[in-house]
């Protein structure tokens, strides 16, 4: 049994919001306890962000690069929560190691049919990982959902056929996510400009942590 929540953000590809969501979920968790945010993407987006980011107001968030061989227990060292940002591939060794050592994985997906169909491959990988880590909980998280466009009927049908559960909370496309990253902040540090985004992140955390 794993002692605490270890949440991974993973997907087959880039540009779906792994790094954005990893840092904002970690910032939200830092209001609930000590958080270790692990950058397991060799491109190091979060390591760059952390190097010039404003210290999190809670001072409960540390960002660390992944170690080799990966040891999330060691990296966590007493933190209450661990969030890991994965590279844009499920086939990379590091991604598999992260998933084998995580309790939860969130798979951000853009609400386009192509991305949804690709998620069948994700489900296949998760079946393999669960042979080693049977307790791994997994969800798809729809990200960059347009405010105006309700999901079409076709989309709803594709969603229905997916093998993976979908989080009830969706993340809207909001300038706050881009602005926060540019300013070296999380959406929590944007004040009123980030309020709706922060509320959305809180709802996701409630939904994920209750399981
Ligand atoms: N909900 C969102 N609203 C607006 N922009 C977003 C949102 N999620 C991600 N982005 C932007 O989309 C781009 C890709 O996101 P990123 O987190 O880097 O994806 P990944 O880590 O999966 O490659 C970035 O420019 C990011 O600012
Ligand atoms: Mg990334």
Would you mind describing this structure in some detail?
There is one protein chain. By secondary structure, this protein is an alpha/beta fold. It has one domain: Rossmann fold, CATH 3.40.50.300. Helix content is 40%, strand content 15%. It has helices at 18-29, 45-52, 72-76, 93-100, 113-132, 153-161, 175-182, 195-209; strands spanning 5-9, 35-39, 61-65, 81-85, 104-109, 137-142. Helix 1 packs across helix 8 (195-209). The two termini are 14 Å apart. 41% of the residues are buried. The model has no long low-confidence stretch (mean pLDDT 91). Magnesium ion binds at residues 18-19, 41, 45, 85.
Any idea what the CATH architecture is? 3-Layer(aba) Sandwich
How many domains is the backbone divided into? 1
* Rg, Cα atoms, Å: 16 Å
Shape: globular
Largest sheet: 6 strands, parallel
Strand content: 15-25%
Task: List the keywords.
8 helices, 6-stranded parallel sheet, alpha/beta, 211 residues, single chain, binds magnesium ion, binds adenosine-5'-diphosphate
Give the SSE map.
Layout: E1 5-9, H1 18-29, E2 35-39, H2 45-52, E3 61-65, H3 72-76, E4 81-85, H4 93-100, E5 104-109, H5 113-132, E6 137-142, H6 153-161, H7 175-182, H8 195-209
Parallel strand pairs: 1-4, 1-5, 2-3, 2-4, 5-6
The protein binds adenosine-5'-diphosphate and magnesium ion.
Summarize the structure.
With 211 residues, the chain is an alpha/beta fold. It contains eight helices and six strands.
């Amino acid at each position: 049994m794993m002692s605490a929540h270890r949440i991974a953000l993973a997907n087959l590809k880039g540009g779906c919001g792994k790094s954005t969501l990893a840092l904002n979920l970690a910032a939200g968790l830092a209001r609930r306890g000590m958080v270790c945010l692990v950058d397991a993407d060799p491109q190091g987006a979060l390591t760059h962000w952390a190097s010039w980011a404003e210290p999190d107001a809670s001072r409960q968030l540390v960002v660390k690069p992944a170690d080799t061989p990966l040891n999330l227990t060691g990296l966590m060292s007493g933190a209450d929560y661990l969030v890991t940002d994965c590279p844009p591939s499920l086939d990379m060794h590091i991604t598999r190691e992260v998933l084998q050592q995580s309790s939860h994985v969130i798979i951000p997906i853009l609400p386009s049919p192509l991305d949804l169909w690709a998620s069948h491959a994700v489900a296949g990988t998760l079946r393999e990982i669960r042979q080693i880590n049977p307790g791994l909980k997994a969800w798809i998280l729809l990200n960059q959902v347009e405010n105006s466009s309700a999901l079409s009927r076709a989309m709803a049908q594709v969603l229905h056929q997916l093998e993976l559960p979908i989080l009830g909370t969706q993340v809207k496309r909001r300038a706050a996510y881009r602005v926060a990253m540019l300013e070296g902040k999380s959406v929590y540090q944007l004040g009123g400009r980030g309020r709706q985004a922060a509320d959305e992140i809180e709802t996701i955390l409630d939904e994920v942590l209750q399981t």
